[in-house]
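Sanity check. The docking grid for magnesium ion depends on where the pocket ends up, so I'm generating a full predicted complex first rather than guessing from homology. Inputs follow.
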Amino acid sequence: QQMTTAQIRQSFLDYFAKQQHQVVPSSSLIPGNDATLLFTNAGMVQFKDVFLGGEKRPYNRATSSQRCVRAGGKHNDLENVGYTARHHTFFEMLGNFSFGDYFKKDAIRFAWEFLTKEINLPKEKLLVTVYHDDQEAYDIWAKDMGVPEDKIIRIATSDNFWSMGDTGPCGPCSEIFYDHGEEIWGGPPGSPEEDGDRFIEIWNLVFMQYNRHADGTMEPLPKQSVDTGMGLERISAIMQGVHSNYEIDLFQALIAAAARVTGAQDLEDKSLRVIADHIRSCAFLIADGVMPSNEGRGYVLRRIIRRAVRHGNKLGAKGAFFYQLVSALSEQMGDAYPELVKQGAIIEKVLRIEEEQFGKTLDRGLAILEEHLASLEGDVIPGDVVFKLYDTYGFPADLTADVARERFMTIDERGFKDCMETQRKMAQQAGKFGADYNEQLKSEKSSDFKGYDATHYTGTVVELFKE
Ligand code: ATP
Ligand code: MG
Ligand code: MG
Ligand code: MG
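Predicted complex below; grid placement will be based on this.
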């Protein structure tokens, strides 16, 4: 009997509750305690101040299943969606945390016991990494857990050394990988082919061991802590005997729904995966209060929505389709996230308005892009074309880059940014005079208009903006 994704989430939380961990609900995707962070991108985010010692909680062990978004900001997996078996813009991170309580030995023991005893993964398919000089972790894996030495890989890069920032808590990590089999391309961690999807990283154990000072010195923390993160969808894929996250129960349901609303026939189509991924990040972002806009978090949301709409268009969708996936998502995740159900109607409405608005310029923009591509020499779409699509048709640059990539092309990002900068300067100039001019126009219409104040307006400026 195969475990569902929902059951796997529960079994993780149950296991750690049994080990005296407090089960803590997921926090919002909008970090409450960190203005520098775009979105919550790991389980530890809501515990940051506890780790730093500034906040006290009535427990020193916690476990959670944290909703995360990695699109924009430091961790950005948007470009990976549709191209790897393991990345989403939205995913759930299962984690266990020790706030100055247990350290390496128990963290490793819990993880190994959960994987090999609680959910019975075959040991021979697991591989672990340690930071190259972390002999302590190496010995725990080798001696206490009995992992054969050829399955323990020492890594010297930042992949296995975590830090919160340039200064502050930091320490080595130990990661657990699963081998999906030699028929899949990829190599073990540390090898040149590690980015392939054969050996998939499932769990990161972070040992907060030092406090790094501005001069680079590292002082052992008075209270050493543990922060771990395991992707629910990745462990679910393993438990359900499939390779790609997109083949798990939850995603199969979303993909089927996406096929229904777009009219797509081929369930393997990459665009269906992208849409199934994007409905999760968009719906959850809106549920957490983000609204589509032209800047900051809202612009990331708008970009993801427009990307999804473009993929639907590619599949032949007629009219707004994306918002229709909200109910399918609620069916899959509503039990674990009741706010999704409660806010369902609002989420649908926001998505539909966005889709309809973008739908007005999408076809025309795509036609313009096709025209340019037909006469293009080389494989780089020029910055001014990317800019025109952005400025006139509402194509975020990453959307154009996504179209380009499907044809093994790229966009001229530098050139695009230059165009943006030029426009920004022009808008600034225009703003300086134009805004005031609009005021004048308004007052011109009103009866008490007494003529331009010569000290503020010269004839030329007014002439310039008369058009
Ligand atoms: P990868 O190397 O595969 O990109 P990562 O090293 O960036 O993963 P961590 O920052 O260590 O990931 O996060 C902890 C865990 O969260 C990972 O081991 C993985 O199981 C999961 N995870 C990370 N990013 C994603 C994502 N974009 N989609 C789904 N799961 C993810
Ligand atoms: Mg990553
Ligand atoms: Mg990694
Ligand atoms: Mg990692």
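Relevant for the grid: Residues 413-445 form the longest helix (33 residues).
Also worth noting: Residues 107 and 320 are 47 Å apart (CA to CA).
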